[in-house]
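ingest -> fold -> write
write: protein_1
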Amino acid sequence: MRKSILAIGFLFLSLTSCNKELPKNTLEISGNIEGFKKGTIYVQRVKDTQLIAIDTVKINGDSHFTSTIKLDEPEMLYLFIDRGVTNSVDNNLLFFAEPGKMTIDTNLDFFTADAKISGSKNQELYEEYRKVVSRYIDADLDLIKKRFESSKTNKSISSLDSIDRERDEILKKKYLYTTNFAVNNGKYAVAPYIALAEISDINIKYLDTIQKSMSAEISKSIYGKKLNTFIKERKSNP
């Protein structure tokens, strides 16, 4: 009987430790980079326009990793891998972090393209946004290629102008979609972030609309404050 009670006690302790809540303002990232057997993982943030490491994880044989950092609010961070002697441009993964538990699973061959990130609503919204915007980007790249090929075959100026007008229309659609997306998600940090990162040169009236759509909490967030400052500066220097 005593052994049964002890066994139940150990099981209870095990379960409670697994479900133990993180301290406030803490981010725990766990995951797996398949094929990454030796090297270093850096969690980075932008500070004064430069990337700085806020945590370091050494990998030696096991591609699973865990990183725990202090994070006061949602923020775009980077997961950078140092492959050692292997050179690759596919080393830095952008992700929208939030306090709490997040998972990042990917592989060494397609580090950014195959990444599956969960545990962050802002990341979920950002992925939704990028999925749509990528269509506009692809369409614009097709037109750039078309214009280049047309210029080589001595097409008329009017033909080239027509392509340029198509590109302008695509850009307008991208900017309009981005504005609507930010307005519809004003209670999330992703809204002011994409306004600054994607359409900072848009007509100021659209930035005003985004600013007014932000919740009080987001207006006081890191990106909300940056957007407020940016709009103020643009208005003072028209």
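write: protein_2
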Amino acid sequence: MRRLGNAAIATVTAAALCSGAWLLRSGAETHAPPQPAAAEARVDPGARGSAAPALPPSPPDRIRIPSIRVNAPLMGLGLTASGSLDVPPAARGNLAGWYEAGTTPGERGTAIVAGHVDNADGPAVFYHLGALRKGAVIEVDRRDGDVAVFTVDTVEVYDAKDFPDEKVYGAAARPELRVITCGGGYSRSTGYQGNVVVFAHLTGSR
């Protein structure tokens, strides 16, 4: 796919991830996914530590987040006809996707990974994403055999109407990663009201 860069993603909040199908079917609002702590949300993503040298471009195959027990394959995602980020098939709960027309995880710039918080059968791949804390490790297996290791800078939650496109998708001068799922308030009529976004930067490779 032609490399478009993240500027091609216009006013996107990954809304297709956010139906809340399981909560709607089970009436389990009391078991909604964890949300970022207020202290985490107040951290300035721009105030980050040093980064490891950028890796050459290579498509990713798998994402692992040990602290929340994520170990999932990655599929390539494009854009929908309306210009929003496409999403993995909802029926495949343990599957995430990356924006394959943009930056690959580990190279200089902002790489984008997205996945469902739940589906009709229950919690999905990023159900516990809001429980991540600063300093947590995210590992991405790449097709060239390298593993890109990222460290979480902050975890934030945004209402859909206030989603900061430039802050999330904007260009970066070093290797960075955004991991996105649904979060915020939940309505039985419209699903989740916003998105949880993890901000991380490359701190090593192996």
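write: annotation protein_2
The chain has one domain: 6-205.
Residues 33 and 127 are 6 Å apart (CA to CA).
pipeline exit 0
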